[in-house]
Write a structure and sequence with these properties.
Its main location: membrane. The chain is an all-beta fold. The chain has 2 domains: 91 residues, Sandwich (Immunoglobulin-like), CATH 2.60.40; 58 residues, no CATH class. 0% of the residues lie in helices and 43% in strands. The chain contains no helices and 16 strands. The chain has a 5-stranded mixed sheet with strand order 4-12-11-7-8, with no helix packed on it. The radius of gyration is 28 Å and the shape is flat.
């Protein structure tokens, strides 16, 4: 097949490789460089978010993406408690931490630890729970005669520390109130 396989690479394997194909009609060459990458985990370029918000009863994924070669092994802690996979907590292969059914008890400092044969590093963020956003008054079906006006309401409750934005769509397409101001009118009630 003209295939070259290298196993258990070392830094000595780095360099320019050349493949030569030859037959009765001639000879051709192809070159490729093999770089060997090895580095301890570092969060310098991609630190964990310092503040992570999660809705009460919802789900959160906290990313842990250090630069490292070879791929590091991951572990997580909340405060001083080491976390393990369970019914509500899962550590993904890529290092991310998933928590479902968020409660007030899940708030706190989360640290991701990454370790490979070159070294180790960690990064920490704080998880805060917010009240879940809920639709308290949903739009109702409306029958109107052609040419008349129709009004639809939508009211939601939300965490007071967060802003709330209402987005209306028609058949899956978001309504642009700026462009379609002659047909649609948005009234915001405080």
């Amino acid at each position: 097949k003209g295939e070259l396989r290298l196993q258990s690479l070392t830094f000595d394997d780095a360099g320019m490789y050349q493949c030569i194909a030859e037959n009765a009609h001639g000879i051709i060459y192809a070159n490729a460089e093999l770089k060997i990458v090895a580095s301890p985990p570092t969060f310098e370029l991609n630190p964990m978010k310092k503040k992570i918000l999660a809705a009460k009863g919802g789900r959160v994924i906290i990313e842990c993406k250090p630069k490292a070669a070879p791929k590091p092994k991951f572990s997580w802690s909340k405060g001083t408690e080491l976390l393990v996979n369970g019914s509500r907590i899962r550590i993904w292969d890529d290092g991310s931490l998933e928590i479902i059914n968020i409660t007030k008890l899940d708030e706190g400092r989360y640290t991701c630890f990454a370790e490979n044969n070159r070294g180790k590093a960690n990064s920490t963020g704080v998880l805060e729970m917010t009240e879940a956003t809920r639709i308290t008054l949903a739009p109702l079906n409306v029958d109107v005669t052609v040419g008349e006006n129709a009004t639809m309401q939508c009211i939601a409750s939300h965490d007071p520390t967060l802003d709330l934005t209402f987005i209306w769509s028609l058949n899956g397409f978001v309504i642009d109130f700026e462009k379609e101001h002659e047909h649609y009118e948005r009234n915001v009630m405080v």
